[in-house]
Amino acid sequence: MRLLPSLEAAVHDAFSRREQSASELADDAERVAFICRDMAARFHRGGKLIVFGNGTAGTDAGHIAVEFMHPVIVGKRALPALALANDAASITGIGAREGFAEIFAHQLRHFASSADIALGVSSDGWCASVRRGLEVARESGLLTVALLGGDGGDLADSITVDHALVVRSSDPLVVKEVHVTTYHVLWELVHVFLEQPGILGPEVIA
């Protein structure tokens, strides 16, 4: 039995949209490599990764943290990481007292040190709580990274973000799926740098 031509076209279009968004991000390979180098340098100096996002981006944050803390590939080094949306009591308590926009910023003030990495995840780049988290992180000396979608919103060009990666798609499903691939690539290349510390440069590994 053959599918109707319209259904075949829909399947082809669904894959093409994902391929296009992933390919555009892959074309920014130099930026990805610089992000991984900077993240590896922070880990090498004893820093940790702090990840945050709302809704489905919050589940991505949890996924990222566990990938670094408990690598699925046997023999890979565990790296310190935590996700700020995992504690419902803290999130709701901070939100009730200080407002929802402060749920990550408040935790960063108390959990983070200047050696750390802050990674904010937003499907469109227009998330007040992620923006506030990155602002506080930058003020505290953390390396700030944003994983974004859509046009990147106000975070893509924010001075509070050291590195931004944008999945340029208006389809939230495409954004989420390419985000998953992207943070797997970040994990993989951070380990490449850590396993060859000489490429981080003498000023980093001294």
Describe, in plain words, how this protein is organized in 3D.
With 206 residues, this protein is an alpha/beta fold. Helices cover 54% and strands 12% of the residues. It contains eight helices and five strands; from the N terminus they run H-H-E-H-E-H-H-E-H-E-E-H-H. The chain has helices at residues 5-26, 29-44, 56-69, 88-98, 103-111, 128-139, 172-195, 202-205, and strands at residues 49-52, 81-83, 117-121, 143-149, 163-167. The chain has a five-stranded parallel sheet with strand order 2-1-3-4-5, with helices on both faces. It is globular, with a radius of gyration of 18 Å. The protein starts with a helix and ends with a helix.
Please provide a brief summary of the model:
By secondary structure, this protein is α/β, with parallel strands linked by helices. It is 54% helix and 12% strand.
Task: List the keywords.
8 helices, 5 strands, 206 residues, alpha/beta
Structural topology:
Layout lengths: L4 H22 L2 H16 L4 E4 L3 H14 L11 E3 L4 H11 L4 H9 L5 E5 L6 H12 L3 E7 L13 E5 L4 H24 L6 H4 L1
Parallel strand pairs: 1-2, 1-3, 3-4, 4-5
Helix pairs in contact: 1-7, 2-7, 3-7, 5-6
What overall form do the CA principal axes indicate?
globular
Arithmetic mean pLDDT: 91
User: What structural class do the secondary elements suggest?
Assistant: alpha/beta
Count helical runs.
Answer: 8
Number of strands: 5
* Rg from alpha-carbon coordinates: 18 Å
User: Span between N and C termini?
Assistant: 65 Å
**% residues in beta strands:** 5-15%
Order of the strands making up the biggest sheet: 2-1-3-4-5
What share of the residues lie within helices? 40-55%
Uncertain parts: none
